[in-house]
Amino acid sequence: MHHLGFTRSSVKADHALLTPDTFIRAPLPGFVNATCVLHIAPQLGAGFVQYSAELEDGGQFGPAPSATSRFVYVLEGHLTLTLEGQSHTLEANGYAYIPPEMEHTLNSMGTARAMVIEKVYQPLEDVNDPEFVVGKALEVNSSPLAGNEGIQVSPLLPDGPAYDSAVNLMTFQPGASLHLVEIHVMEHGLTMLEGEGIYRLSDAWYPVTKGDVIYMAPYCPQWFGALGKVPSRYLIYKDWNRHPLE
Predict the structure, then answer these.
(1) Sheet of 188-194, strands arranged across
(2) CB 132 within 8 A of CB 70
């Protein structure tokens, strides 16, 4: 129901909170039996694109843009990823990182939803190209953030110079919160997967819950505290392993 123009969504100079009641679906070139919601894009000031893909049975992804890496995280249903002559089944919370120019197909088995992050890859001289990664996020080893056992960080990509970005799964126990307000050069794309909490972005405080998407520009002050009776979990992207002048 439309509540007389009210929404939790908010777009500011250095951040955006995007809630499902404001999502607009649109086609992307090459996608078949699928539609997308473009959450984060250069038009917002971002150096990457983040969108959710909603596929019908037999749906198919279009190709990634030239020189662009693609990270796919399955939210619902199943996808079949085929690359380098191998097929991989990605179920809910399964993910894949596909390096630039690596030919691949992604097809749905029944209806499916996935969050997708695409970025023009920044190569480094004398560094090998990144390799593709396929995994199950809930099976990745986690470690406490800054010694706080109530916040667990699961890195979904290798932490080597070949990778110019990082994607982490963050899990907060109820009542857990970041130990400081973070301010840094990296930008973020965040998807709330479970639970709820309060996010500080710049000088604003927002209630957030499952399904919300957040963009944080470089140097946007940011802080999160988990609320409710169940753990809160979010997927978060950042640019990484590159000098800002490159």
Answers:
(1) 10-11, 15-18, 213-216, 188-194, 232-239, 165-172, 148-155, 143-145
(2) no
In this structure, is the dihedral angle defined by the CA atoms of residues 31, 81, 160 and 100, taken in order, positive or negative? negative
pLDDT in tens, 138-169: 999 999 999 999 999 999 999 999 999 999 99
Residues sharing a CB contact under 8 Å with residue 183, sequence separation 6 or more, in sequence order: 219, 220, 221, 222
SS3 151: strand
pTM above 0.90, yes or no: yes
Burial, 160: exposed, middle or buried (Cβ in 10 Å; 0-12, 13-18, 19+)? exposed
List of domains in the chain: 23-137 (2.60.120.10), 142-239 (2.60.120.10)
Q: What's the confidence (pLDDT) of residue 246?
A: 84
Predicted confidence band of residue 1 (pLDDT cuts 50, 70, 90): low
Is residue 49 within 8 A of residue 37, CB to CB? The reply is: no
Nearest to 137 by CA among 94, 194, 80: 94
The answer to whether the CB of 81 falls within 8 A of the CB of 134 is: yes
Token pair 């130990």: residue: 179
Say how far apart CA 24 and CA 8 lie, in whole Å.
Answer: 15
Other beta carbons within 10 angstroms of residue 155's beta carbon come to 14
Closest CA to 51 of 18, 97, 83, 87: 18
Dihedrals φ, ψ of 21, to 5°?
Answer: -70, -15
Q: Is 149 exposed, middle or buried (0-12, 13-18, 19+ CB in 10 A)?
A: exposed
Position 190, amino acid: L
